[in-house]
Amino acid sequence: MNRVLPRALPLACLLLSGVALGCEPARPRYHPYVPAEGFEEALQISSELPDSVAAAGQWVTMHAERRAGPWEPKAVSSRTDHPCERIAPALREYEVASKVRWHIQPSEGVVFNTPGPPDFQRQIRFTRPGRYVLHAVSEGCAGPFASNRLTVVVR
Predict the structure, then answer these.
(1) Cα 122 to chain center, whole Å?
(2) pLDDT confidence of 50, banded at 50, 70, 90?
(3) For residue 114, how many C-alpha atoms fall within 13 Å in the half-sphere facing its CB?
(4) Exposed, middle or buried by CB within 10 Å (0-12, 13-18, 19+), for 80?
(5) Which residues are 136's β-sheet partners?
(6) Mapping DSSP to helix (H, G, I), strand (E, B) and coil, where does residue 150 land?
(7) What pTM does this model have?
(8) pLDDT band at residue 142, thresholds of 50, 70 and 90?
(9) Which phi and psi angles does 120 have, rounded to 5°?
(10) Residue 137 and residue 139: Cα distance in Å, rounded?
(11) Considering just the CA atoms, what is the radius of gyration of the chain in Å?
């Protein structure tokens, strides 16, 4: 009987600790964030053209940067879902030109590339001369939001 007790004790401790851990309330593995007071979203676009002048048929690399914030941890007591709740919100996203919708006026004579690895660059080619006004739109917490406007002269 003395031999059984020392062998059974570790097993009993293991079982009891498993039961005790199983009774703890589940804790989230992450802490969500929601927009804080003064929250804003912004989208800034630019091109690789230093003087915004391109030649007809030339591919032009576009750039876009998104910013959003400030963010604050969601109150632990809050049981409601926030429409803009994020697990790890980005304050600034660089090079998102392939992740936004582009709008160009006039739209005739404009060709977009298909972004792909390694850098997913967004490029635009203007097939005929003219003056083009571009802006981009991104989805945000309160709905879509637009970028600044950029004018490109094509010769």
Answers:
(1) 16
(2) confident
(3) 0
(4) exposed
(5) 102
(6) strand
(7) 0.75
(8) confident
(9) 55, 40
(10) 7
(11) 27
